[in-house]
Amino acid sequence: MAQAAAVAKPPAPPRRRRASATPRRLPYLLIAPAALLMLGFIAYPVISVFYYSLQNYNPTKPWRNGYAGFDNFVHAFTEDPVFWDTLTFSAKWVFVEVGLQLLFGLALALIVNQTFVGRAMGRALVFSPWAVSGVLTSAIWVLLYNSQTGITRYLADMGIGSYGTSWLSDTSTVFPAAIVADLWRGVPFFAILILADLQSVSKDLYEAAEVDGASRFKQFWHITLPHLKDAIILSTLLRAVWEFNNVDLLYTLTGGGPAGETTTLPLYIANTSVDAHNFGYASALTTVAFVILLFCSMVYLRLSKFGSEAK
After folding, report:
1. Three-state SS at 53
2. DSSP assignment, residue 70?
3. Which of 49, 78, 112, 272 has a 20 to 30 Å separation from 33 between CA atoms?
């Protein structure tokens, strides 16, 4: 009987082996070297800027170096008129550039999204300026604006304007000239992002709208724009940050002149640190610029309701 009971007893379930933690940690171990490098190249400079913003640090005047507290910030807001001038011009530059780039980029994206002969070549021509570096873009437009061999020379040959005119040295024309130069490179950025989002719009929506008698404008206003909402918000935010920090084009094109007419806050920071060697004050200005960008980005995303469903 005991032997039969022993035979009838079901076998004990096998013990579950404890899952090894190594496979779960393996992805983090693989990305750890790259993450540490990124942390070192990003976190250290950021922390250094915050540190030096509270210091008087000028390698050419070491006897004045030391802890300054908030004196650099007080000087920027109360005693430095150039700071306010460059901040005002930076806001003007960003508003005009981003607005025009969005307008022309949206128009180009809608055009190259249509079906026509040579569309692939047209898209390549539209997007090609984005592949050109900022310094090379500046060099191209410096040659185009050259008073001896550029656009003004050919306009003078046609009786428009006078010889020797330089748009980059005239305070009344330098701003629109710089705007056009940056538009040439910035418009393709919006065109690329908006075109990519246009590819995902269902054609059934347009067909249904046509059946209901909706005009092209109504289709654009009620179908296309709501679908492009997040793409437009994200692209304008990214481009606004990049335009605010734009140094290479304006530095190469105008050097901030004439008479400081095209000096943005980042360009003023670069001149303060590189030319004047006043790294403490430049770090304070950089911190102020960082806080301004962070605050404006948060407000913009909040007001634009990025990520929410369009009604």
Report:
1. coil
2. T
3. 49
**SS3 letters for 227-263?**
HHHHHHHHHHHHHHHHHHCCCHHHHHHCCCCCCCCCC
Query: Do residues 134 and 189 make contact, with C-beta atoms less than 8 angstroms apart?
Result: no
Say which residue the tokens 């005119």 belong to: 165
CA distance linking residue 132 with residue 136, whole number of Å: 7
Q: CA-to-CA distance for 103 and 114, rounded, in angstroms?
A: 18
DSSP 182-204: HHHHHHHHHHHHHHHHHTTS-HH
Question: What H or E segment, with its residue span, contains residue 169?
Answer: none
For the range 197-203, what are the long-range contacts, defined as Cβ-Cβ under 8 Å and sequence gap of 24 or more? 197/227, 197/228, 197/231, 198/109, 198/110, 198/113, 198/224, 198/227, 198/228, 199/113, 200/227, 201/227
Per-residue pLDDT tens digits of the chain, which is 311 residues long: 445 445 555 565 555 555 555 678 888 888 989 888 888 888 888 899 999 999 998 888 888 888 988 999 999 999 999 999 999 999 999 999 999 999 999 999 988 888 778 888 888 888 888 888 878 888 888 888 888 888 888 887 787 777 777 888 888 889 999 999 999 989 999 999 999 888 888 888 888 888 888 888 888 888 888 888 888 999 999 999 999 998 888 888 888 888 888 999 999 999 999 888 899 999 999 999 999 999 999 999 988 887 666 55
In the chain, how long is the greatest CA-to-CA distance?
122
Buried b (16+ CB within 10 A) or exposed e, 193-209: bbbebbeeeeeeebeeb
Say if CB 269 and CB 32 are below 8 A apart.
Answer: no
Round to whole Å and give the CA distance between 134 and 243: 11
